[in-house]
Amino acid sequence: MVCFRFNVATKTRLYKVSMDTVPIVWFHGVLVYHGPGIGITLYINGTIALSDHKGKNVNYGETQGNVLLGKGKSALDEQYADASVDELYYWNTPLDSAAVQQLYSMYMQ
Fold first, then answer.
1. Whole-angstrom distance, CA of residue 91 vs CA of residue 81
2. How far apart (Å, rounded) are the C-alpha atoms in residues 58 and 82?
3. How many angstroms separate the CA atoms of 76 and 98, rounded?
4. What is the DSSP secondary structure assignment for residue 37, as one 8-state letter?
5. Contact, 21 vs 1, CB < 8 A?
6. Where are any strands of DSSP class E within the chain?
7. Which residues contact residue 87 at a Cβ distance below 8 angstroms, ignoring those fewer than 6 apart?
8. Residue 39 has pLDDT above 80, yes or no
9. Rg of the chain, C-alpha, whole Å
10. What is the per-residue pLDDT across 64-85, written as a single tens digit (0 to 9) for each?
């Protein structure tokens, strides 16, 4: 079974989206973090696939600000993704649906 999970955490809130099965082909994925109290949205091929706007209360205290891609959240977690990432971009502002659709259209040309 192919699956994936994205977690976005702040000091006090944890947002999660996950899919039990994903296509074993190339796809365009965009994860948008809208900000504290607003949540995250996952787009697949320009369309909203999943979102978590509620999140879960947590108390992580001071964080290191680490970004982990393809690995579990702790150094002891030995689960690694069996996947490849062609390109990775980071914006310092949330993208709206129109911007995500425009990115997808650009890649499909």
1. 23
2. 29
3. 39
4. T
5. yes
6. 4-9, 13-19, 29-35, 39-44, 47-52, 56-57
7. none
8. yes
9. 15
10. 666 666 666 555 666 677 777 7
